[in-house]
Design goal:
15 helices; alpha/beta; about 450 residues; globular; 4-stranded parallel β-sheet; 4-stranded mixed β-sheet; single chain; Aspartate Aminotransferase, domain 2; Aspartate Aminotransferase, domain 1; 2 domains
Length: about 450
Amino acid sequence: MNSEKVSSETLRYFEMARKFLPKSIWSPETIVTSFLVERAEGSYLIDVEGRRFIDLTSQWSTNNVGNVNREVLEAAIEGLKQYGFVMYGLNLHTAVFDLVNELLRIRPSSKLTRIALELSGTGAVDAAVKFAVKVKKRPHIISFLGQYHGYYTGTLGYSPEGAESRRFFENLYGNAAILLPYPDCYRRPEYMDCEEWGRFIIDYIEEWVLKYQAAPDRISAILFEPIACEAGVWIPPDSFIYGLRELADKYGWFLIADEVMTGFGRTGKWFAIQHWGIDVDIMPLGKGISGGIFPIAAVYGSEEAMASEPVEYGTTFGGHPAGCLAAVANIRVLEKYGIIERSAKLGEKALKRIKDWVDRYEIVGDVRGRGLLIGIEFVKDKNMKTRNPESARTVYLESIKRGVVPLMDVGDWILRIQPPLTIEEEVLMYAIDVIEDCIKIAEKEFKKT
C-alpha cells in the first residue's frame, strides 16, 4: 500500500496516530506497512475502505478459533451481564472455577495441579518466575537468547528477544537471569548436527555455568519456549528438551515452559510440550486462551510451586470473570469442532506445499514449522546463511498489496504464517500462492542488486 492509493479517511487516522500515539506504534513507515482495520471476521481483516485481507497472523496466535468467534463472544457477553467486574483474589467468583476445571481437564501433565490467573501472557510469565524464585528461595533462573517472554521491564531481564529491546534498560537486570544460546538448528555450528548442538547446550550448563557462574543450589528454574516463535520458529532438537528435564530433576530446579504463543492448538497439539511428552513444573498461558475475545492469562503449577507457600502475584483485572467464561467457551469450541486435530493436518499440508521453496528460490534459506506455526527464513547467501531482511520486507509488503497479511516485525528476515486454526484450506492455499508470487518478485529484485 502506498500513500497515493490510500483514501483521505485512512490518511486522517494515520495523521491522528502520528500526533497522539507513541512512536513505537506509529512511525513514518506505518503508511506503507499497515492498513486500518475497521472490523474482523473469521479468516479476514476488513479495512476502512472495505478491502478484505486474509489474516495469516491470527493477531500473534491470539484468535486461534477465528476472528470474532461468535460462541466465545457470546460467553464473554454473558459473563459481563452476570458479573460486570469482580476482582479475582479479593472476592473469588464462580467463573474462576469454571475455567480452572477446564484447564485441569486438558492439562498436559498430572503434575500440574494448580492454576493461577493473570491478565496477559507477560504477566503469566512474570508470575511463573515469582513462584519459582520465592518457593525455591534461589535468586537465579536460566533462560535463553532469542526467547520472547514479554516487554515488561522485569520480563526483559530473562526475555532477550533482541539487543534493541533491552537498550537503556540493561542496568536493571543484574545477573539474575543466566542467558544461554537456544539451539536454532538452521544456524547451528557447522561441525555439529542438530542433536549434538542441543546436547552441547545442556553440557555447557553443567560443565561451565554450574562451575563458574552459579552453583546449582542458587538456581531456581529453567525458563524456555518449547518452540521459539518470535525468534523465527526455532524448533529445538530432542536432546535439548529432554536434557532440560534431566537437569531440572538432577538439581531440584523448576522447569518452566512458556506456552503463551504455542498453546491452545497452535502447533497441532493442545500444548507444544506434548510433542516431547515430558512433564513441566510451571507453564504460563496466554494469547489463544480466550480466542482473542477478552484479555486473560493463566499459569499451570505443581503442588510444590503453588501450594507450598503463598506467593504474591497478579493484577487488578487478572482473572476477569468475562475472560474466564470466554476461555471456557474457547476450549469447548476447539474440542467441539476438532480444530486442533485439523490444525495438525492442515499445517502438514501447508508445510509440504512450501518446503521446496528452499530448492526453488535463491533467497529462501529455510522453511520450518509445526501445525499452523510456520517460518520462512530469507537469506542472501545459502552457504553463509546471511540474513536478508530486504527480501523479507519486499515479500511482506507485496503480500499486503495483494490482500494477504503474513506476520513479520519490520526489519526482520523471517516471515511467519500463523493463521486462525479455523482458516479454510482453500483460503490458506491461495494465500500461500500469493506469498510465492511475491517471493518471485523479491528474487528478481535481489538478483538486480
